[in-house]
Specification:
The chain is α+β, with helices and mostly antiparallel strands and 70 residues long. The longest helix is centred in the middle third of the chain and has 10 residues.
């Protein structure tokens, strides 16, 4: 439903979660590279850097193997 609204209304949706259920649901419906997961990591120097995940197959694999994308 969210992807349909994004397309129909030409909007962007941003969501923050620590829920694996939400990530699994996202992976299940993200059939194109239009959905993007962003993980914020803290480097040893304290800087926060984004890690981007856009490949649907990688996202599904990572969630299936319990690799923390959050």
């Amino acid at each position: 439903m969210i992807f349909s609204l994004v397309k129909d209304l030409e909007i962007q949706v941003f969501a923050a979660t620590h829920s694996m259920d939400c990530l699994r649901s996202f992976a299940a419906v993200n059939n194109s590279e239009k959905g993007l997961l962003v993980r914020l990591d803290t480097r040893s120097d304290g800087d926060i850097v984004p890690q981007y995940y856009s490949d649907p197959e990688y996202i599904r694999f990572a969630i299936e193997k319990q690799i923390d994308l959050r």
